[in-house]
Amino acid sequence: MKRTTLLYSTILSLGLLMGACAEDDGNYDYTPINSVTIEGLEEDLLVEAGSRLQLTPVLNITNESNINLSYEWTIGETVVSTERNLDIALPPLDYGEHLCALTIRDLDNGMQYRMTFSLTITNPFNYGYYFLTRMDDGSTEMAYIPANSEDASTAEDVMYATGVGEYPFGKEPAQIYGGYTYVNGTSCWQMTFLTNEGDNPVIITNNNTFQPMYLITDANFINEDQGYRFLPECTVVSMRQEQFFISQGQYIRYVDGKLYRPARHLQDYYWSHPVMGASGASFAWVFDELSKRIYSIAPYSSDNPELGIVADSYAYDEVTEPENNVTIDGTLLYASDAYSGGGHLFNAYAAESDGIHLYTFKKAVWNAKESTFSGETVLPLPGAGENTKIAAGTTGISNDMFYVGSGTEIYSSPTTLPTLSSFCTLPSDLGEVEYLGLSARGNRLVVVMYDENSSEERKGSVVYVDLSSHAVTHTFPHILHHCAGYWGANDSTSSGFGDFGDTL
User: Fold this and answer.
1) How many C-beta atoms lie closer than 10 Å to residue 13's C-beta?
2) How many CB atoms lie within 10 A of CB 40?
3) Coil, strand or helix at 256
4) CATH number of 36-122
């Protein structure tokens, strides 16, 4: 009974209260709490260091006429703006990823709204043209022309570096090489810098940040206790992104931050001018400085206990001499390989007293061991010598073409049925051809000229030649020291093998 009475009393009380409310005719005006949603900002932004950051958020406000808001943009812990729209010159920041936020506060009710996003600062050395150069004292300087530069009359559009991060380049630069790769699942370009003197003869960068990925020295040998020396002369990379170095004439695989042992052969060789087999083939063409002959090298496919051979997929121990091989008497200038029609076609370009000698070698199928010397073509060129420069193309307009630079003249020839023809004449006030390269898309020649008699600090100049019109389209006078190497990197629209840094 007691429990029932209590329940009845409660119900009666509620009824009385409801009745009281019904009799209240007061005028009550309730204002709903305003709300804000933030849209229109990308979650991941990629911005070059030193550029301007402009962001315009889209705000959805339930009652915009009756709201009092404050704005705060932060990069890391630093407030960089209190304006609704962000428009700032980027402050000095470390390359790489930074957490950013836009925080909006309702000053009337204390409500807070926040959106976070990622800002990746990329280095200014990004998509464009890289030149590794030697100063008069042997020191190394890298010069960079952005892919979106306009024609320059001074060095103002060119950027320079004497090292990567806190690591300076060594002296006596040897080579620069670029390639597309993945780091922790993120795609990026990386550059390999080779110098002959210094604490770090090889520096490999992540070009999203222009910071070292790897520093390669003697200590990187897997079997360091064997006393191997690492004095790199050049590097070569396969289409499978397998990287190799030649050090003191020895062929060495580099993988996962480690140097494998040098290749072991049954007789002495001193390798130079390595060219990986095209289309990802697991062999390389090499020139032996001792015999002055071309060979191919590859890993042994099986053991041979009688000869003490153990097959090793990481070491290019097996040497194959082409059938009917010949001795190259002149100065070997350049070498290239292409795959078409069911086999490889390898060309070695040498300067001799009567002109350019083109030596051709063939492999019948994609990755066969056997190879054959197939012919020599003499291309008359007065004054041909070690200062004559060669570049051969494999893509775009330059496909199946090669180009010869001598003095202020450029010549061209098809690789098949070769015949030299005059291609263009370069500006005579910039000196003579010192380096010849091709843009990554194969639509322009990238020529370095050097004027020994120039009074400028940098006596080297860069000239772009359009391969369709044969015309000089851009000149960058007196921006380089002596050029030791060149590389053109893809532009930002590339997914690895798409458009390249030829956007001028």
Assistant:
1) 10
2) 11
3) coil
4) 2.60.40.10
pTM, two decimals, is 0.77
pLDDT tens, residue by residue, 29-55: 555 667 889 999 999 998 877 778 999
197 contact partners, CB below 8 Å, separation of at least 6? 138, 170, 171, 172
**How much of the chain is in helix, strand and coil states, percent to nearest 5?**
10, 50, 40
Euclidean distance between CA atoms 451 and 458, whole angstroms: 9
Q: How many C-beta atoms lie closer than 10 Å to residue 212's C-beta?
A: 17
Which pair of structure tokens corresponds to residue 404?
């010869």
Tokens of 265: 């052969």
> Helices H, strands E: what count in the chain?
1, 39
Cα(151)–Cα(494) distance, integer angstroms: 24
Which secondary-structure segment (H or E) carries 141?
strand 140-146
Q: Give yes or no for a contact between 460 and 145, defined as CB atoms under 8 angstroms apart.
A: no
Supply the DSSP symbol for 387.
T
Neighbouring C-alpha atoms within 13 Å toward the C-beta of 72:
14
> Which residues lie below 8 Å from residue 91, measured CB to CB, with a gap of 6+?
75, 78, 80
Dihedral, CA atoms, 208, 211, 214, 215, nearest 10 degrees? Answer: 150
Q: Which of 30-39, 179-188, 232-241 has the highest mean pLDDT?
A: 232-241
The set of residues, in sequence order, having a beta carbon less than 8 Å from that of 486 and lying 6+ positions away, is 129, 130, 131, 132, 176, 435, 437, 446, 448
Mean pLDDT of 479-499: 69
Amino acid identity of 466?
Answer: D
* Phi/psi at 148 (5° precision): -105, 20
Q: How many CB atoms lie within 10 A of CB 259?
A: 24
**Sign of the C-alpha dihedral, residues 334, 194, 143, 398?**
positive
CA pair distance 390, 348, nearest whole angstrom: 10
Specify burial of residue 136 (Cβ count, 10 A radius: 0-12, 13-18, 19+): exposed
Partners of 52 in the beta sheet?
A: 89
